[in-house]
Amino acid sequence: MAAAITLAAEAPKLSAANTGFMLICSALVLLMTPGLAFFYGGMVRVKSTLNMLMMSFISIGIVTLLWVLYGFSLAFGSGSAFIGWNADWLGLSNIGLTELWPGYTIPVFVFMVFQMMFAIITPALISGALADRVKFSAWALFVALWATVVYIPVAHWVWASDGWAFKLGVIDFAGGTAVHINAGAAALGVILVIGKRVGFKKDPMRPHSLPLVMLGAGLLWFGWFGFNAGSWLGNDDGVGALMFVNTQVATAAAMLAWLAYEKIRHGACTTLGAASGAVAGLVAITPSGGAVSPLGAIAVGVIAGVACAAAVGLKFKFGYDDSLDVVGVHLVGGIVGSLLIGFFATGKGQSDAAGVFYGDHTFDQLWKQCAGVFAVLAYSLLASAVLAFLIDKTLGMRVPEDEEVSGIDQSQHAETAYDFSGTGGGVVGGSTAQALAASKIKKVDA
After folding, report:
1. Which of 55, 123, 280, 398 has a CA positioned 20 to 30 A from the CA of residue 134?
2. What is the pLDDT of residue 422?
């Protein structure tokens, strides 16, 4: 009886500090989507800049509403091993303001909004593979369907207490499988359906603004601390701090490894390589950072930096047009980071599961990681390809070839990112009106 009384007294209570911390982390994760927009926006040609920005921003609008209406209920409600359900969470209509997330000291609303930000950025990651050639309306529909059919079930598998991957013991601290492998495999599935850009392997398709790329990478790096450290939900046992440190360490190591690979292979250390290497490190440490030591994080970063740098060239070898290397960075980086847990997990971080280098000579954790990685990869690849195929056969996924060649910004948004005419204004009609007005002023002056 005394023990029961003690346990009751130690039941979690609302923590203002943890709540505030998690709200800040949620805002940091949201910042990553505009950061991703700049990162991708700088990597495309000038005629596709606004479309790339909009493909990320539309995800914020669509996924926010879906998450409130039913996404949170299906992803984190109690149900089967494959999908959840909680009628009280539909529309967030029956959640108490101070109702705590089970086992933690933060409100359900805070956990909900933190996970919402993950759901927002994941489909946005896919957009980089589809640059220059997808109808904006078709992309918006794809985001809504993909979030419902692919992201929500996978999030349940990996993070819900009754999800099959969670119960199996698959370690994914903050989204190596549910976010990065999920998005990378989806990107591969879609591009295999919609095909290559006009001029792929023939025309130069260089980034139009490397400063924008670096700005985007910097915002991603900054926001990723909320993404990773926040995923321990404010617990004060030191694991969140370990994840914060490992995020910085692995990212730095991956950036240097990518640059070293570039220098040896191509003779130069590029700014695009630095930005891409940093993102590769962030991706790889996302699943593993709570399970490895800082020295292990260095190893994860170095291996991911080299592996992703090598993988981005596979599109030219195999002929799939992954415009901005989503497959090479997110899919490969997610796989590397998730599988290396089976080697470098110390058993002293988020769980007592140890890797091969720390005594697991039966490869138990490695096999669990393999099961999670390849199940998510296969499901996302196939489901995403089917969704793209259905949309392509109904609404049509691609813009006409002439619009792709002339510029998707003008055809899909009636705007251009930069005004080179000197008359000001980004809207096509607006520029014409201003030009006419300027000509009239000149006639009057004359």
Report:
1. 280
2. 59
